[in-house]
Specification:
The complex is a heterodimer. Chain A is mainly α. Chain A contains 14 helices and 2 strands; from the N terminus they run ααααααααααααβααβ. The chains are: A mainly alpha, B mainly alpha.
Chain lengths: 294, 48
């Protein structure tokens, strides 16, 4: 069986899901992993209160440090995100994020599929600025500790991966359910329904991690390369793009998750995803004469 | 952006990120991350 690009990516996503959530036996025990690997962050969205979680969620960790008594800005987590984003850009979203995989599986549920209005992609930047960067620092308790506002009010991963399995194992937790829980259930419901109708709804509209990595798409080592001499401007790449990007007009788009659907669909093999420029066959995006990519 | 400019920006950002990771680790941020990650985050699961 030939491994198509789509199958190869799915296999990598499944492997990344397993690596990110390695402690599956903890679901039955109702506890979380508490070992040394939780000093480190995984690259994608994965709640560290998930029983199976191998390491820390970068967005959760960012809010935890910035909401702590001692720090207002996390050099450690932001440095990690800058490094990962510079190397991979939003390929992390396309290959390594467990919640991205979940959304893609939800999108396979038969329904009428639609495209989101273009302006909705800016909402995630507001979510990043307000809920992740500002609120944990600005609103603190009497001890100077801020709450992880994104985790508390928005993140559906915490509910699906953390709350549901922990409440199943510990019924006594259910007595602590309050208004915030129902806010999270509502947001989670919208994300699940949205993921069925719109491809990668959470990634497009709400994900602050995607917002950060997307800003680094323009300089990432792993990127989309176009052979302009091969491209016949048929538009097929734009039609198949699940993130509503036109790869020829904007190959370094902040919305591109480097899934490779465009490259797989191109009838002339004019698109290529990778770390290296295509010097043999055509102009690359880093070539001075290729103005399309600037 | 030309190839040389992109390479320069990448190198600069990677250097900054390495310095930030080291600085953050040295000033104790990893301990904060660990403390948060090894305890069930009640806010994250909607109970806090």
């Amino acid at each position: 069986m030939k491994l198509t690009q789509g199958i190869r990516r799915k296999l990598i996503q499944i492997a990344a899901f397993g690596f990110t959530n390695a402690h599956l036996t903890n679901f039955g025990k109702g506890k979380i992993y508490t070992g040394k690997w939780k000093n480190f962050c995984v690259p994608g969205v994965n709640c560290y209160s998930c029983p199976a979680a191998s390491a820390a969620c970068p967005i959760g960790a960012l809010q935890a440090v910035q909401g702590s008594m001692d720090f207002n800005l996390s050099f450690y987590v932001l440095g990690f995100l800058l490094a990962v984003g510079t190397i991979f850009g939003r390929a992390v979203c396309g290959f390594a994020c467990p919640f991205g995989l979940l959304q893609e599986l939800l999108n396979k549920i038969p329904s009428k599929k639609r495209r989101l209005p273009a302006w909705t992609k800016y909402i995630k930047y507001a979510v990043l600025a307000v809920f992740v960067m500002i609120l944990p620092v600005a609103i603190t308790d009497y001890m100077g500790i801020g709450k992880p506002a994104f985790c508390e009010f928005i993140c559906p991963a915490g509910l699906l991966e953390g709350a549901l399995p922990l409440m199943a194992a510990h019924p006594e937790l259910r007595s602590a359910i309050g208004p915030v829980f129902w806010i999270k259930v509502s947001v989670c419901g919208i994300v699940i329904l949205g993921s069925v109708i719109f491809h990668r709804f959470f990634c497009k509209v709400l994900c602050p991690l995607g917002a950060i990595y997307g800003l680094l798409n323009k300089i990432s080592f792993y990127r989309l390369h176009i052979s302009t001499d091969k491209c016949i401007h048929c538009g097929k790449c734009a039609r198949v793009c699940p993130m509503d990007v036109d790869p020829v007009r904007n190959p370094s788009s902040a919305e591109c998750i480097r899934c490779g659907a465009c490259a797989a669909a191109c009838p002339k093999a004019a698109l290529h995803l990778g770390f290296s420029d295509e010097k043999k066959d055509g102009l690359s995006c880093s070539s001075q004469s290729n103005r399309i990519c600037s | 952006m030309t190839g040389k400019k992109i390479t320069a920006v990448r190198t600069f950002v990677l250097a900054i990120s390495a310095a930030m990771i080291i600085e953050g680790a040295m000033r104790g941020e990893m301990a904060v991350v660990l403390h948060k990650a090894v305890n069930i985050c009640l806010e994250c699961i909607g109970l806090g």
